[in-house]
Amino acid sequence: MRTSNHLIGLLNFLTFVLSIPILAGGIWLSSKANSTECLRFLQWPLIIIGVAIMVVSLAGFAGACYRNTFLMWLYLFVMFFVIVALIVFIVFAYAVTDKGSGRTVPSRAYLDYYLQDYSGWLKDRVAEESYWGKISSCIRDSKVCKKMGRTVGGVPESVEMFSLRKLSPIESGCCKPPTDCGFVYQNETLWTGVDGMMPINPDCTKWNNDQAELCYNCDSCKAGVLASLKRSWRKVSVINIVVLIILVIAYVIGIAAFRNNRRIDNEEASGEARMEKARPSWIHS
User: How confident is the model at residue 57 (pLDDT cuts 50, 70, 90)?
Assistant: First the structure.
C-alpha cells in the first residue's frame, strides 16, 4: 500500500543529495566567472535551480514519509516547473555552445582560436563592445597571462618547450598572438614581428607587447573565452542531465504516491463514516 511512498521518499533523498552537485556546479561557474571567464550572469540560473531542487526534494520527502497530501501536491506542482526550467537550461547551454572549437597548429600542443568559428547569441553577447570591455578588464585583473611565465635556469623557457605546453583557451587566445602572425617568440607574453611580413590575420595588428594590452582586444581572446565557456558548460550539463533523469523518475513515482495518499485518505474517511452510522442510537444519546 505504501511502497510508492517509501520509494518517493528514497528518490527525493537521492535528489536532494544530487542537488548538491548542481549547486556546486553553479558555484564553480561563479568562481570561474570571477577569475578567468569573467561572465557573471550565466551561473545564476544553475544556482537557483539547485536551491529549488533542494527545497522541493525536502518537501517531497516529508510529504511521502508523513503521507501529507498538501506537501505532496506542493511537491508535484513546483517540481513540474523545476523540471521544465532544467530542461530549458540544458537545451540553452548546448544551443549557445554548439559551434566552435580550437584549431590545431602544426608542431604545437596548444590550439589557436578564431572568433569566426563561433556563432549565435553567446558570441554576440561576448563580442559586444561595451560588454567585452568589462570581460577583458576582468581577464587582465585576473593576471592569467602573468601566471603563464616559466623560467629554466633563470631564463624564460625556450620556444620548443613553450610549443609543447597545453595552454588553456584564454591563455592561447589572450596572452599570445595567433600563430599565423609569424611573430618571433621571446617569452610567453613577449613576441616580435618580422619586418616586411604582411599580416593575414587582423589580430596581428592588435597584438601589443605592453603587458597591460597583449591580445586582450583580439578576436582570438573573445574566441578563447567562448571556448572556455563551452568546456565549463558541457561539464556541468552532464551532471544536469543525470539529475534531470532522476527528477523525471521521481516525479512519475510522486504522482503515484500522491494518488495513493488520496485513495487511503478517502478510504479512511469512508470507513469512519460507516463506523459512525453503525453505532447504536443509544450511544449518540
Answer: confident
How far is the C-alpha of 159 from the C-alpha of 255, rounded, in Å? 63
Chain mean position to CA 125: 17
Q: Which residues contact 211 (CB under 8 A, 6 or more apart)?
A: 145, 146, 189
What is the per-residue DSSP string for 137-165? HHHHHHTTTGGG--EETTEEPPHHHHHT-
The x, y and z cell numbers of residue 89, run together, are: 537550461
- 240 with 89: CB under 8 angstroms? yes
What is the rounded distance in angstroms from the CA atom of residue 75 to the CA atom of residue 68?
Answer: 11
Closest CA to 22 of 56, 54, 57: 54
pTM for the whole structure = 0.78
Angle between helices 219-278 and 129-142 (to 10 degrees): 100
Mind listing the pLDDT tens digit for each residue in 124-147?
Answer: 988 888 889 888 988 998 889 999
Burial of 196 (0-12, 13-18, 19+ CB in 10 A): exposed
3-state helix, strand, coil in the chain (%, to 5): 65, 5, 25
CB of 224 closer than 8 Å to CB of 169: yes
- 249, 18 in Cβ contact below 8 A? no
